[in-house]
Specification:
179 residues, binds inosinic acid, binds magnesium ion, globular, single chain, 3-stranded antiparallel β-sheet, 9 strands, 6-stranded mixed β-sheet
Length: 179
């Protein structure tokens, strides 16, 4: 048995809706960016989205390279701590590179804003933000996505990479935990 109570999840976006939106995002990105980009996915939440998006980018005629960065701004709860720490860094050199920085959800904006500043300070040519979800009402720093999958209300959501206490990342859809 898992150490937290696993409850049912009500669907906000089905697997089919997500797949269609990921295809749409790939088209938008292919129009706006050069073919040769480095996708940097923020772990852990961004890995499912990244896996689907890079294959959609391939289909849209791009040649994305991929790297990962583990950042931590949350404990095991549902409130951002405000402190962003690098748990694991990328291994690629970003000097002169066009980067698509990707994460599961834009909330306060602290996580991706900190990552973008770091990459620009290392000499990246450009850094565009691609967020699967956006909670516009929760922003604490100035930070907007260049490409956004879906806007969501101020609810805690799980699935498709997003977790609650490290569970639910495996759900093929996105939803809210039932009370
Ligand atoms: P920010 O730095 O406040 O924008 O936090 C973004 C990070 O918080 C995301 O990468 C997620 O890991 C996490 N997060 C924010 N909202 C949710 C949610 O509703 N469900 C699961 N994780 C969330
Ligand atoms: Mg995350």
């Amino acid at each position: 048995m898992p150490p937290v109570e696993i409850r049912n999840v009500s669907t906000l976006f089905s697997a089919e809706e997500i797949a269609a939106r990921v295809e749409g995002l790939a088209g938008e990105i292919a129009e706006a960016m050069p073919e040769d980009i480095l996708v940097i996915a923020i772990l852990k939440g961004g890995f499912v989205f990244a896996a689907d998006l890079i294959r959609a980018l391939h289909g849209a005629g791009m040649y994305p390279r991929v790297d990962f960065m583990t950042l931590s701004s949350y404990g095991v709860g549902t409130e951002s701590s405000g402190n962003v720490t690098i748990v694991r860094d990328i291994s690629d050199d970003v000097q002169g590179v066009d980067i698509l920085l990707l994460d599961d959800i834009l909330e306060s904006g602290r996580t991706v804003a900190a990552a973008r500043e770091l990459l620009l300070s290392r000499g990246a040519r450009s850094v565009k933000l691609c967020m699967l979800l956006d909670k516009p009402g929760k922003r604490k720093v100035e930070c907007e996505a260049d490409f956004c999958g879906f806007s969501v209300p101020d609810l805690f959501v799980v699935g498709y990479g997003l977790d609650f206490a490290h569970y639910y990342r495996d759900l093929p859809f996105i939803g809210t935990i039932d009370e």
